[in-house]
Amino acid sequence: MRANTQRIFERMSKGGFLSVDSTDQEVKHLYDDIEENYTDYETYFSELGLRLESGDGYYYFARTQEGKQTIEQKLQSFAQWVDILDFLKTYDITFSTGFQFRSTHILERINLDVELRDKARKLFRKQNTNQEIVEKLVNELTSMGFAELINEEDGTYKVTAAFRYAEDMVNLITIYNEEEVPEV
C-alpha cells in the first residue's frame, strides 16, 4: 500500500479520478490497489483531510474541510462541467463511459453544426479558434481522468468510468428540478 500512496495522492489530490476501465497500466494498478486496501487508504487519507470516495468504477478525493475555494468558485466550476456535458451530449447523445472519439471528429462537427459551434464558443471563452477549444476540452477530460488516449496514431480517446461522476452530478440537478415542478 505505502509504495502507491504518493502516486495515488499525486493523481487524485488535484481533482483527478482513477477508473476501473483505464487502459493506462499505472492507473489500473493504483485502482486495483485501492480496491484491495480501501480501508487502509481511507484511514490514511482521512488523516490528511481527504475523504476517499468511490463511485461506480472510480475513486476520487473529497475534502473533509473546506479549503480556499469559495461557494461561488465551486458553482462556477460546476456550471462549467454542466456546459461541457451539454456540449458533449449535443455532439453525440451516446457520449458516456466506453465511448470512443477523436478530437478531429469533434472539430469537424463544430465546423458543420451551428448549434455545436455556439456551445463550443461558450465553453472556453479565452480560446480563439475551434481547434484551441477542442484541445482545451480534450485536455480537461484527460486531466480529470474522464478520458484517455488509447491510440496515438489516429488520436482516439476512450471515455472512462469516472465520467459517470460528472453525469451523476448533472442528473442530480435534473431530478431535483423535476421534483420541484408543481402539479397542475
Per-chain topology:
Elements: H1 2-12, E1 18-19, H2 25-36, H3 38-46, E2 50-55, E3 58-63, H4 71-91, E4 100-102, H5 103-112, H6 114-123, H7 130-144, E5 147-151, E6 156-159, H8 163-180
Antiparallel strand pairs: 1-3, 2-3, 4-6, 5-6
Descriptive notes:
The protein has eight helices and six strands, in the order αβααββαβαααββα. The protein is of the alpha+beta class and 184 residues long. It has a three-stranded antiparallel β-sheet with strand order 1-3-2. Strands 4-6-5 form a three-stranded antiparallel β-sheet. A hairpin with a 2-residue loop joins strand 2 and strand 3 (58-63). Helix 4 (71-91) runs antiparallel to helix 6 (114-123) and helix 5 crosses helix 7. It is globular and about 50 Å long. The termini are far apart.
Estimate percent helicity: 55-70%
Order of helices and strands: HEHHEEHEHHHEEH
Shape: globular
Strand content: 5-15%
What class, by secondary structure content?
A: alpha+beta
For the sheet with most strands, the description reads:
3 strands, antiparallel
Radius of gyration: 18 Å
> What is the β-strand count?
6
Distance between the termini: 57 Å
Q: How do the strands line up in the largest sheet?
A: 1-3-2
Number of helices: 8
**Mean of residue pLDDT?**
87
Q: Are there runs of 5+ residues with pLDDT below 50, and where?
A: none
